[in-house]
Amino acid sequence: xxxxxxxxxxxxxxxxxxxxxxxxxxxxxxxxxxxxxxxxxxxxxxxxxxxxxxxxxxxxxxxxxxxxxxxxxxxxxxxxxxxxxxxxxxxxxxxxxxxxxxxxxxxxxxxxxxxxxxxxxxxxxxxxxxxxxxxxxxxxxxxxxxxxxxxxxxxxxxxxxxxxxxxxxxxxxxxxxxxxxxxxxxxxxxxxxxxxxxxxxxxxxxxxxxxxxxxxxxxxxxxxxxxxxxxxxxxxxxxxxxxxxxxxxxxxxxxxxxxxxxxxxxxxxxxxxxxxxxxxxxxxxxxxxxxxxxxxxxxxxxxxxxxxxxxxxxxxxxxxxxxxxxxxxxxxxxxxxxxxxxxxxxxxxxxxxxxxxxxxxxxxxxxxxxxxxxxxxxxxxxxxxxxxxxxxxxxxxxxxxxxxxxxxxxxxxxxxxxxxxxxxxxxxxxxxxxxxxxxxxxxxxxxxxxxxxxxxxxxxxxxxxxxxxxxxxxxxxxxxxxxxxxxxxxxxxxxxxxxxxxxxxxxxxxxxxxxxxxxxxxxxxxxxxxxxxxxxxxxxxxxxxxxxxxxxxxxxxxxxxxxxxxxxxxxxxxxxxxxxxxxxxxxxxxxxxxxxxxxxxxxxxxxxxxxxxxxxxxxxxxxxxxxxxxxxxxxxxxxxxxxxxxxxxxxxxxxx
Length: 656
Ligand code: ATP
Ligand code: MG
Prior knowledge:
EC number: 6.2.1.1
Pfam family, one: AMP-binding_C
Family: Belongs to the ATP-dependent AMP-binding enzyme family.
Mean pLDDT: 94
Largest sheet: 8 strands, mixed
Number of helices: 20
Catalytic activity: acetate + ATP + CoA = acetyl-CoA + AMP + diphosphate
Binding site for CoA: 199-202, 317, 529
Bound molecules: adenosine-5'-triphosphate, magnesium ion
């Protein structure tokens, strides 16, 4: 548990008041895929509800039991059932006469592109599956995938799924060491990589990192290399070129049915709070929930929508909402290789205009960055095709939510703030775009079929208006099955804090209507003069100041108050020169006191050029706590840019 938890203080103080409401547009409400009755239907018969959702998929053998929970917390969903995940994502759409439909509009960063229809995807996946078989990969083997955002990435994942190999995708920005530990942990036999990818306007090499990693990974037999940048690479005896091996394979392959609980993939968490954990997801339940939530939360109409999730496939968001959910639903998606500001800061909006994207899913960190760059940039593009916007990864500050809705969604699109984790596999708490009157900053309600609550220290449900720990009270189809190779850590991390409840590690509050607001990690909660205060609420108050683009808040030991609030602030581009002065710091402190009350007033405001973030874009507050408490900086291996901490340390002497 966090060192910040005071046993006498059971709940989080509830500081933020937010009264804006955004009901769904009438036409969306009218034609929505999922309407309000779904909540009641699922509440009346949760397992029956999930069985009905499982029928969105094509099963080779029907299940005997929807849920086997006889050995908690080890769940088996759709026990006895068999299906092939790749068949469900690709072949069945072709068989139903939709082979000519576009699966991916791929957009390379340099401006090159490739369109893959479902029929194309079927041929490519079959060839790749045959290639894996030729390399000796079999059902149950693990395959590490270390690729940029190119079509070969989803193709490789689906090829694994097709033959029953369990993939472990490692984000292409990770170091040789990080890749090596993940390969070793999963005992992968093969790595699929590329010579490189394009990032920030230039080729960025991947193969040398793999070469370094596999020098010391005895389980790896082959390295399968895709040509992307044409960069020269060292060739080793175990290397095989994708162009040689995959291209000469037959494009016919019969998908083999797998048991519902067959391991589909291992994915390591982002490492925001500590050591990444190898989260195991299986087949039938996972695909059921990602397909259902993609249909429900984004209101996907496969015939007319063009969907785009800007995440990297190296994170769970990309697994569930670029690859498995959209493909299971037969969606047409955009797949984009690069960064949002290459070659210019309007690139994302240009992509939306080019493909007529209707549904866009991104992260608060990206939204705040776009706010920092200025409203005039998206205003130059035609974004009128958009009808639903989504957010995931961190709590979205109300100001960022409203900016997103106004500047990207023309003031009319619903914004769905989706709470979930690598561990949950799929979205758990989110508005439904045709049902929910959205509140900026709130994830609102558990989706139909999901049972979540906020509890105090003693596992008692807190009343409306209270705050505490977010828990999940019933198993769900896409839940993690274990931490790879470590059942004990699985039980200890998630199921031991509260008896019989899944402990998410996040703080949350219930407002007066019973709607849920995520308040950040329990480990980040600050204890100031006997009040548990959420970092998220103070950060949101700071971001609501017109000159603040982004902020991170931590609690630092204080002789008087126990902990005191220290805020790190990035000013907006148009904030002017005076942001370094004592006056600005005072203005911000007063602004927080006015928004949330004097208890939340930061002791210190530090103006910084950047914040430490994980490679998936989440703020790493524990490093800022080290700075605020004048300690040596802790483990930075999951940090995206380690020079950021030097930039911040330089600012220290001028701390106000
Ligand atoms: P690690 O578990 O290794 O520290 P991580 O928690 O960052 O890494 P992920 O599984 O990628 O790894 O992130 C899940 C977490 O992200 C959630 O527990 C929550 O803290 C945060 N999160 C995701 N979506 C939301 C959201 N919509 N609102 C608030 N928080 C969110
Ligand atoms: Mg986590």
